[in-house]
Amino acid sequence: MNRYLYLIIGLVFLLASSFVGCKNPLYIYEDGKVLIGGDGEPIILIDNPDAVDPTYAELAAFIWQDTTDNNDYLEHPRIGYVCADFAEDVHNNAEAAGIRAASVSVDFEGSEEGHAMNAFDTIDRGLVYIDCTGQSSSDKLNFHLEKTEEGFEFVSDNPESWDAVAYVKIGREYGLVPLGRANALYYNFYEEYTQKWQAYQQVLADFNDNVARFNQEIQGQTYYEGSSELARLEAWQADLEEMKELLDGLSEELGDVWFEPKGIVKDVQVHWGPE
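Above: the chain sequence. Below: its structure as tokens.
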């Protein structure tokens, strides 16, 4: 009896080994494991044999018109939609449009949670990483009340797009810059952009603080023409207007969205379609 049991167990082991050894050509494998999306289903990259490498301008035009970034990020065991799903859809949409694309997996130091995005080998600017991962529906509930001629209305504070150029370098911070503001692709540009964004936030905080103090000081007050007090306030107002011009310039240069860094890049795997 023991002998037969041993043989049966051995047969099951062989069958299991054979199953693991046979890879589905439509799936993506990393370290022998199938890459899955937020719904638990395998990620499937659909290649177009006629797809070609684009110019950077062609790539940017495609990403701008592609609406994948508008999808809601959702963590759910059955209907989830996470970064791997965003990358899958961008890849398949690009290939369908005749643009050769890759899905990219990124691992971070000190974290078991990775990230996924896309890569394109442009013919004029080389390999470009693109991250179109959107936000959850709750994170998109950003509004402010704005006065209009008819009264008041809620205005969205969400950016025009979540599309970004990714700056990826082993041992360095995973960085993102909005697609429309990514004027260069080298990593130092991301670092310079980050410094400018931090400076912008400091100037903005100082400006808002000064405006609040200015409004508080003049509230309910009367000032006489030619008085030193009025001259002081006019000079203060001129300084505020100058600060606002600086802020407007920085806002135009930097865009309306800041992507929080995800971590220090440990490893990068680029998948050009099924293997």
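Confidence is low (pLDDT under 50) at residues 1-20.
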